[in-house]
Amino acid sequence: MKFAITTTAILLATASATVSADQRIATFDLGSLDTLDALGLNAQVVGVPKASLPDYLEQYAADNVTDIGGLRSPDMDTLGESEPSLILYTGRQGEWEGELGEIAPLLNTSLQGDDYLAAFDANVRELASRLAVESKAEEALGTLHAEIETQREALSNAPARW
Q1: Which residue ranges does the record assign to the Fe/B12 periplasmic-binding domain (predicted)?
Q2: Three-state DSSP class for residue 86
């Protein structure tokens, strides 16, 4: 959790973007919601699973954002009514992929492979590409990687607690 908050803080400190108002994003992936928020794309978010929101993303519980159901139980009718132009989903919603795809174009944001950081980077880049904010995402990822390296160095010098 601390890593996610640190990630958000770093991305927020280094990135802001303007995306055309016609981008309407519904996301079942809270990691991607965190990324959208950090890249300043919060105005484009039209739907989230509100019952699953962590405290640091509580602004998405507001009335102007549609509750699109649970992580394992999408509300297809409400999702459709929110008129998204892109739906972000993970394996948890995989069984509804066909139905979701009838509502709007899809992006599977499940992390693939054994290298978490590489998978995270790939997802951020794909999402940034779809929303035309590649340079802001690269800047934010650069800052994030520098912070990770700083933390690794600090931990390598820490005394063992065994």
Answers
A1: 24-162
A2: strand
The CATH number for 47's domain is 3.40.50.1980
Burial class for 157, CB neighbours closer than 10 Å (0-12, 13-18, 19+): exposed
Per-residue tokens: 32: 């991607």
Identify whether 158 is part of a domain. Answer: no
DSSP 92-122: GGGGGHHHHHHHS-EEE----SS-HHHHHHH
E strand or H helix at 89:
strand 86-89
pLDDT in tens, the chain (162 residues): 445 444 544 444 333 333 444 689 999 999 999 999 988 899 999 999 999 999 999 999 999 999 999 988 999 999 999 999 999 999 888 888 999 999 999 999 998 888 989 999 999 999 999 999 999 999 999 999 999 999 988 888 777 776
Domain that holds residue 8: 2-145
- Could you tell me the pTM of the whole model? 0.80
Are 108 and 131 in contact by the 8 Å Cβ rule? The answer is no
Sign of torsion over alpha carbons 94, 95, 96, 99? positive
Residue matched to tokens 């640190």? 6
Residue 156, in any domain of the structure? no
